[in-house]
Amino acid sequence: MEAQNETTFYQDSFVKVTQSRYITQSKTYAMRNISSVHVFEIEKSRVAPILMMLIGIPFLFAGNVFWIGLILIGLGILIVFNIKNEYTVRISTNAGEADSTISKDKEYIQKIVNALNDAMIHRG
């Protein structure tokens, strides 16, 4: 059962940050064990769609199968522009660094990081 005087700094359906705990979908961290927290960007590789485009170029000059080149280049371009990097709440504890919550929405991750910082300041 939760303590009556526990201050909640952030809460949604997946995450809760209080003065003593950081609760995610899969793990609970004690705030006293968290030494630092920041937003970390996970860059997604764009190698596969670029290779698709490069493989498609020779097909453009291969006579009757030029449409295969158009499809490969078109799909490659579509994939490159739809790949989005992910962001994570990276926390440092006495056990090392861990990525706790991952999302493509940087503002969402920043809200959690801000709440964790507020909770760390509150605990002293």
Summarize the helices and strands and which ones pair or pack:
Blueprint: E1 8-11, E2 16-18, E3 21-23, E4 28-30, E5 34-42, H1 47-60, H2 66-82, E6 86-93, E7 96-103, H3 106-123
Mean pLDDT: 90
Helical content (DSSP H or I, runs of 4+): 25-40%
Q: Write down the overall geometry.
A: rod-shaped
Distance between the termini: 24 Å
In DSSP terms, counting alpha (H) and pi (I) runs of 4 or more, how many helices? Answer: 3
Radius of gyration equals: 22 Å
Q: Which H/E pattern describes the elements? A: EEEEEHHEEH
β-strand amount? 25-35%
Major sheet: arrangement of strands: 1-2-3-4
* Number of extended strands: 7
Q: How many strands, which pairing sense, and closed or not: the largest β-sheet?
A: 4 strands, antiparallel
Going by helix content, strand content and strand pairing, the class is alpha+beta
Instruction: Pick out the low-confidence regions.
Output: none
